[in-house]
Amino acid sequence: MLLSFLNKAYPYIPSKRPAWLNNLFIGIFVALFLIIFQPFDLSIWQTPNKTLKLIGFGLVSFLMPTLFGWMVFKLVPKHQLEDDWKVWKEILLVLGVLLSIALGNLVYAHLIRITDLSLRGFLNSVVVTVLVGLFPVALAILNKYHRLLRLNLEEAKQANEQIAHPHLETVPQANNEQAGEIKNPGEERVLRLIAENEKDQLQIPEKDLLYIESQDNYASVVYCEGNQLKKQLLRSSLKRLENQIQSNTTKRCHRTFLVNLSKVMKVEGNAAGYTLSLSETNMQIPVSRNYAPAVMQYFKTGA
């Protein structure tokens, strides 16, 4: 049960406020908490400029997570943060922040002659930092997870209602007479997908396309031919094929997927976003945060 929860998708969604501003609020909270309540025998600590020294701990609580967050963005690929973030990764991130604050507190406490730079001093600093910050942080993680889960489940429910009762009006398709489609009056739209060598190509009716998945330097095109499921590799980037298709129906939904939304039979929501179930395959297509608005807009308006 616990392992299942830890492996659940978790939305890595930075606040609309700059990270340093959030960290500033944390620093102010820590400084006020220490000044007002004076836990951990601070009340019996006799030292000149005591209030200013306690404010220093708040400054550490501002600077260290700011530096740690900057390092995370530099070291962790963006797609990992957006598409493959889990609950356990979020917990590790929070623990990393707490440990960075503990290290900063240890160095600062040594500078103001409270403790020595030692393993024991660091462990004591970790315990104090965790005791002050772990409970509110855990509540924040759970609250964020369940809030976004409820929101996405509701959006998925509305999308499924639209799938069950499709729009009566159709939206005109974009016109592209070169790569991407072959279109004659009175005929269905046919996609022409051309590989990078400009020789290899695949022509299929758009209504038969299921999805296209990026696989290193290739794109795997999955489609139906009669009652059979077909797959063909083209040496091409997903972006290149997306530009060839230019459709209101076939959209980018993930860093590695294009999907024919007219083939979606069910939308499932989770805290990180959505997954799409298609009519002719058991493949679950992920929808990442960046592409979710456009995908969900299709189910609301058909465009």
Give a written overview of the molecule.
This protein has 303 residues and is of the alpha+beta class. The protein folds into two domains: 159 residues, no CATH class; 136 residues, LytTr DNA-binding domain (OB fold (Dihydrolipoamide Acetyltransferase, E2P)). It is built from eight helices and ten strands. The strands form three sheets. The chain has a five-stranded antiparallel sheet. Strands 8-9-10 form a three-stranded antiparallel sheet. It has a two-stranded antiparallel ribbon with strand order 1-2. Helix 3 packs antiparallel against helix 5 and helix 5 packs antiparallel against helix 6. The longest helix is centred in the middle third of the chain and has 46 residues. The protein is elongated.
Main β-sheet, in a few words?
A: 5 strands, antiparallel
Distance between the termini: 40 Å
Q: Summarize model confidence as the mean pLDDT.
A: 83
Helix content range: 40-55%
Return the structural class: alpha+beta
Overall number of domains: 2
Please give the order of strands in the largest beta sheet: 5-4-3-7-6
Order of helix and strand elements from N to C terminus: HHHHHHEEEEEHEEEEEH
Radius of gyration: 26 Å
Shape: elongated
Total number of β-strand segments? 10
Q: Note poorly predicted spans.
A: 168-177
Count of individual helical segments: 8
**Into which percentage range does the β-strand content fall?**
15-25%
